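Researcher: Quick sanity check before group meeting.
Model: Go ahead. Protein one:
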Amino acid sequence: MAKFSTFYEGWLSSQEDFLRRLESLLIPVNGFDRDRECREIIPRVIEHYREFYREKAAAVEEDVFVSISPPWMSSFERSLLWITGFRPSILFPIMEGALAEEELAAGQRRRIEEVKAESRRREREITQAMARVQETMAEQPVYGLIKKFGGGEGAAAEKMRAAVEEVKAAMREVVREADELQGWTVAEVVEVLGPVQGVRFLAAVGRFQLRARRWGVERDG
């Protein structure tokens, strides 16, 4: 996890660089082809998020239990978490705050509503799946085995370790689905929006994330 913590600090630094670039594209400049510049930067920002999820997947594989309460985040950031990241549904109020309703064409609004409904449906399913995994931890035989043989050896202790590994495997799958949904939701929203709209949305997402980080770190300090 120390490796991912180091990666995350560097990733956030790059996120700040991307945010500055995104915000600069929203400043009107005569003779500047803003649409072209916006179209070019959006895939780079999306790839930046994909890099985060690739590295995070490796950290989850290493220790999925730690990823549920990630030490690389401030206590405030952790208080906002759903599974191991922000809820995908939070992206829609961020988008609405970044874009005036009249900026969206009727077709865009319809598609956004479809994406929102699908994202929230899948979010509920994943939340329920995590609840089932957590319930498994509190039920026999896992809880009883951990309580009785948590530090022991022998056949019973081996059975306990096998039961815990089964729970970890189920939790990794839930985390994978949650991260996949987060990435899917961002990509679908960006696909609906025009280039400048997409940059406004991604800039708003970046500001939210970095402000939560900054406030959390200051509060912990």
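Researcher: Fine. The other one?
Model: Protein two, sequence then structure:
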Amino acid sequence: MTTIKDSVHDHIEIEGVARDLLDTPPVQRLRHVTQLGTVSLVYPSANHTRFEHSLGVYYLADQALDHLGIEGQQAERVRAAALLHDVGHGPYSHNVEPLIYRHTGKYHDDVHDLLGDGAVARVLAEHGLNPDAVADLVAGDGELGQLVSGELDVDRMDYLARDAHHTGVPYGTIDHGRLVRELRFRDGELVLAEGNVQTAESLLLARALMTPTVYSHHVARIAKAMLRRASARLLETTETSAGRFRRMDDKDLLVALRSTASTTEVARRLTYRDLYKRAVWAERDAVPTDVLEASQETIREFERTIAAEVDVDPASVIVDVPDDPSMVESSSRVLVNGEVRRLGEQSTLVSALQTARRDQWRLGVYAPADVRDRVGDVAVRTLGLDIDGARISDTHRGVHATLDEFQ
């Protein structure tokens, strides 16, 4: 048995297959992949890693298995999946995941190719575990896969508590002990026991509050957009393969960006927090449907058009169109009067939070500080933003928030 002191869960005891997986290269690589990517440019203490998070997910999975009475090889598969659930993440975690998907067709939870050979496969085989079966659990397949990846998964419970702890914000504080204790399986579905509608709501509320405050903070979004654009240029202009890119850690990627002529300037800006500024920050109702539904190539064409009219390098303009707001936690299932119900059907809080998420949605256009006003004016015309028929944030067109640098 190995005991590790953790900042969130105190002492974590690791044994069996998880202990032997700890020192494999794919797991140790996670020490060098930050959990929140560019969020550390907003919250300086948010430097925790995917390795720490994976330990926390293992701990909560182990607790859940104990409460559910699941033992033997079934339990060992879940423990292995919990520890390995993030080995598919690329550098800077979710920040570049859409780019990796476009080039490889794989999201971070598609890890069959990563578990099928090498040190991880050897350890799993030594413990009588099938790598494909473990990878299926990572992807959330099957009844027990819901523990690792689902609406009530232990992954979500750990990252909310851990991200709140390391950023210092109170919004992600949840009673993960109660959540784990109240988990049940009913007809193959993972649910919360009777009397836990509010417990499910707490998970939903924590995520809803953490999103605008931490995960989608405008400074983190700007840095993330800069990182994605630079990473795309790295793949376009060098011999770096998508497979190699996917296996980089944060330091590998930053060194590669610094060493490539077309991305050196962005690497410098990210290193020293000399970030682009908001030229436009537009509410959803101000954005035409064709812009909301635009492909990546169309968005890149918007950027080139805006840059050409302002007479700046196309790399100096970023149009950031977020995906539609989602709230998967609203699909969490709870027992009410002996019946399994989705939280969205039982809680009036869900619709209010969904409306809030829609109201928080913003289209961003980013540019260096010395050209942002001109970029903003041209972007409004180019994108066809309805600045008369809908509200635009007061950070648009020369009126910028005094706390733009931080919050």
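Researcher: One line on it for the slide.
Model: Residues 276-324+361-407 form one domain.
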